[in-house]
Each structure stands twice: as C-alpha cells, then as structure tokens.
Write a structure and sequence with these properties.
Blueprint: E1 2-5, E2 10-13, H1 17-21, H2 25-28, H3 42-53, E3 58-65, E4 71-80, E5 88-95, H4 106-116, H5 118-121, H6 127-141, E6 145-151, H7 152-155, E7 171-178, H8 182-188, E8 194-195, H9 202-209, E9 213-215, H10 220-230, H11 233-239, E10 243-251, E11 254-263, H12 272-309, E12 320-327, E13 336-345, E14 349-360, H13 361-380, H14 385-402, E15 407-415, E16 420-426, E17 432-434, E18 440-442, E19 460-464, E20 469-474, H15 486-496, H16 506-513, E21 526-533, E22 541-546, H17 551-566, H18 573-590, E23 595-601, E24 605-611, H19 631-638, E25 641-647, E26 650-657
Antiparallel strand pairs: 1-2, 1-5, 3-4, 4-5, 6-7, 6-11, 7-8, 9-10, 10-11, 12-21, 13-14, 14-15, 15-16, 16-19, 17-18, 17-20, 20-21, 22-23, 23-24, 24-26, 25-26
Helix pairs in contact: 4-12, 6-12, 10-11, 12-13, 13-14, 17-18, 18-19
Amino acid sequence: MLGIGRSGEILQCGQNAPGVVGRSPEELVGTDASKLFAVEGKEALTGLFDALGTNQERTAVLSVIDDDGAALDAVVSVVPMHGRDNDSGLMMIRVAVTDLERFTDPALMRWALLDDALPRISAMLDLEQMAQELAKVVVPHFCNSAGVLIRESIMGADEVPSFSPEGTAVLHRLAVAADNDFASWSAAFPAGEVLAYPPGTPYARVMATGAPVLESHVDRAAARAIAKVWRRKPVARLLNGVSMVLLPLIARGTTLGFIVCTRSDAHRAFDAYDVEIGMDFAARAALYIDNARRYSRERATALTLQRSMLPTGLTAPSSVELRHRYLPGNQLIEVGGDWYEAIALPGGRVALIVGDVAGHGVRAAVTMGRLRTALQTIVNLELSPSEGLQQVDALMRGIGEREPAFATCVYAVYDATDGSCEIASAGHLPPLLLQPGGESEFLDVSPAPPLGVGEGMIESRTFTIGDGGILVLYTDGLVENRGQDIDDGLARLRSVFGPEALLSPLEDLAKATLDGAYSDHDRDDIAVLITRLRRLPEEHVVTMTLPARPSAVREARGRVRSTLESWDLQELSFTAELLVSELVTNALRYATGDIGLRMLLDRTLVFETRDGSDALPRARQAADDDENGRGLQVVHRLAKRWGARLAGQGKIVWCEMDLPGGGDRVLEAWPGEAHHL
C-alpha cells in the first residue's frame, strides 16, 4: 500500500510494500509511482490518476516491474483521501502469492484458522454442515486438500463405537475440500463414505493413538503402499510427494475422528509448528463437533420419545370420522406433554381422549407416556370415563410424591348405536359440540380438579349427539397464548365450527383450527382431536330378547343364522352359532331374568349378551373330570377377542369375529397427516 499525491508522487509506503514491488522505503518515497509499472500500462495508469483527481475510486490490472526487471501481474486500485487538503490518495497493489510463499506466515494462518471462521462455525448444530465449513477453512488457509472424518457411531447416535474385523474404527467422511483438481480428490475420497482404514496406515494410527500424525514427505513408494492396501489406485497419484498431517478431534477425552490435511510438493512441507497450529484448531473444532453431536442425539432422543408415545393410528367405528393435529410448543422445545387418543371399543363405541401434562420438554413427555399407557389399559378394561380418570388421578398422585406433576384430561365414550356420549373431565377445557342443526356449544361437563391435584370426585355426564354432529377436543395451547385471552381464543374456535362446518371436510377444518398457530413461536403445545359422529346403519344392529329357558339357545342360533344370511355372511354361520350358543348358555347358568342378544356388523362382527347379574365371567382351565368351565375356553379359541363389562344393574358379555377378506383396521391416512409431528 502506497500513499501518493495527485501527480503520482509516492508520499508514504506500507511495511509490506518492499516485498511487493521489490524496493526499499527509501527508494520509494519521493519517486514517481509510474516508474513501478511497465510502459504498456501507461494508458491505464493515466486513467487511475485521472480518477484520483476527480475523487473517484478505480481499479486496473497492470504489470509491476521489480528491482530485477521482472514483470508481475498486479491488481492496482486508487482510493482518494478525504480531508482538508484533498491532494492525496492511497494506491493498493495486490500481486498473487507464489506457491513457495504460501503457508509461510504463521500469524496469518492462526488468524484464518482460529479467529476468523471458528466463532461463526461454533454456532452451527448440524454435523455435516459444520464439517463442510471446517474443511473450507483449512483449505486454502492451511493446506491444499482436506477431509473431515468422524466415527460412524456418532452419526448413528449410537454410544457404542463400531470397529472393522481388522480392529480399526469405522468412520464416516463428512466433508472433502481441495483447491486444485477437486474432482479427483472427491472421487478418491468421496464425502458420505463409511469406511475403515487399513491397519498400518496413518489414518488408522491417528485413531489408535489419539495423537497427531505428521508425514513430512510421502514418497512414491509410500503412496503406492497406501493405495495398494486400500485398493484404490488413484490414491497413489494424489498422495505422491505430498506433505500430510492428521489432526485428531478429541473432546472430553474421546477421539471423535480426525481432520486429514495435505500440501502438494509445490508448497512448504508441514513442520512441528504447523502441527501446533493445527492442533489448536482441531481442539476447538472437536468441542464444537461434540456439542453438535450431543444436541443431535438429545433432539433425536426427544423426538423418538415423543413419536413413540403419540398414537401411530387411531381406531373407531366405520361411522366415525377422525382428524387430529399435534404441534409442539416451538422450535426450541420440540416435545411436550399434550396427547390425544381414539380407541375403538366393542359394541360400536369409541373412546376419545385429549390430555395435557403441565410443563414442557422430555420430563412432561415421559409423564404423558405413562398416563397414556395407563389410559389405554383402563379403556380396554371398559371402565366408565369417570372411573377411568379416577384411576389415573391415583397414578398422578403417586408420581407427584416423587416430583411435582399434574395434568388435565377429557375422556369421552361415544356409542354409535344410539348416539349417546358419556364425557368426564379433570380440569380440562370443555369440549366443543356442533349439532347437526348448526348450533354449537361448549359442553357443560361436571367440573373436577386436574389429575394429581384435588380431592374431589370425578363425575361424568351423558349427552345425546345428533347424527353427523362434530365434537372437538383440544388443549389450552389452541385457545390461549401471551397475545390472546382465553375467551377470545374460545370465541375464535367456535367461529371455525359454525353451521357451514357441517358441510366442510374435516381436513379443511383441522387446517382452519391451527390457522396462525405455526407463526406463533411462543405458543404452548397444541393437541386437537376432531370427530364427525354418525350412527351405525339401523340394519347393521339387530337386537332381540330371549326368555330364561333352555329353548333360548335354539332361538338364538336361528336368529343368528337368518341375520347372517341377510348380511351375506353365511360362511360365518357355523362358528357364529357356536359362539352365541356358549354366551347364551353362560347367561342361563349364572343369571336370572330375560337375556338380551345384540348383533352388530361394522369392521368386525360383534355378538353381545346382556343379563341381570353383575358377576363378570372369567376363563379358567377345566380339569379332565369337570363338567363345566369349557364354554368360555371355546369362545376364547374361536373368537378374535372377547370380554365383559358392567352395564346398569347387570353385565354385557361380548365376542368379535373377523369378517371375510380382512378384520379390524386402522383408519386410512389422509393428506396432512405429517402435522402429527
């Protein structure tokens, strides 16, 4: 850099000017700057001075003549100086560094490796992106070509390191960089490759020892040996004559991988001081990689936990249509305690559940998983919603003894045979019901404290839902946030489910329900379960009353046979008659009064008997000389499943059969199911 007057006289010179133009400061100051350049560039040089005279910046390519008379191409720029006397300016002369002069300034290398790029790279959390940026830093500031490799176990979030049969570590090459002939380097050392280096090579040695490996000069014989043992012929040409250093990436006492750097024979070979600079860089890079590794592992663990605890499929009677959405709190907290569930129950019923564990993160997700598992068991035991939530409340009290925890939950059981819906709530927001007539209301469910908090009893209420009504269960994150009062949120939700919603697809309603939620980065978790409730066709539900006498078994078989013929299921008649015979016989033996028989055709074929006894049957292993105890064993062997539940003053015993061509199935997927997570 030179300070010049408007006439071209050199007034000052920078400390590196002698190295660029080949003259001492004494020789430069006071001379005409035009004498530094070849005469062929006189016209371009005149243009530079003219621009300086008009306070303009300008750049040109000129030939600089050094003290030996040799010409070097240079990029020359002039910049006017703005002061009280505008009669001076700066002339910047930039020449290319020769190969022998490259990598000779340790201060420049330290600045480029440690001060310039690392602070920016440290903020990255993606391993592959970080590795690519690291490779771009060392090339061209430290070497001509480089590769970043880490253990494959780290990429797979596996804590147990893997090894090849020869005992060397299995590595994953994340990035490759080269400032010349990149195609050859990337072909011989492709990014994304999973490999184990052969024993005895520098690559295997750095992983085995955890110490840097310096190969000041790799001659032709050594390069061929590496290529031969590795069975990659192009490697011999690429490594011939290079200087190589392998820098281990060690973080918290663990060798994560290494960075391999090479310089061609046209440049200064690596030495001990280069190794010191490189290890400073590798030590910091290893910490950043380890932080990214830990973040990736924890995030994958949390998301796997969340996905495993949310349902992978919802079941319901064929007349019930379902849509659901789950939206985590924000990008920083991607797991939470909200959940939803829909479980088909025997007798054309479905259990609909939405809950919210207080808090965020993995702890809330774990508690949610425990509650969801408990509720699944309770649902299959066919307890009423109030009894089921009472049992879960006891579980939450046990959890709260070890650490504070509470949750809200709403639990509904819809019967598609008569349109009744029994709902219980524990501290949860009221469900929204849109009746077929277009009236919408928040259902007045008996209030109860959240699970694990209060001492009050949980009660349920039964509502009658018209055919085609829409029931919406949701968590508080949908209707409440920092910028919106809960009453405004409830009003907005109610407006979405106006009379026109009766004719809208549930998928469109689900999208409208979450409108604006994705842009709110401070939101709470959101879980929504939207159901369109229709009753089963009347012809698919057949009910009859049988007298409490032995002839009832024959009457039941005849009715089963005729009903299956009307349903075009004659091939099931023999097995179905046998099952119903056992159920009716069991009711005759252990109950008094008339016996109710009901047959339902839906995704499966269901048979139910109702009697006045509240004693639930249980299957037992009959001895060889027992006269009784084999009826339920027959039911267990022939039916898909069977069970019993209390109903009023008596009980219902039921069994299911698969239909020809397929049995019970999960509801089909729909566009937008990716919103599940």
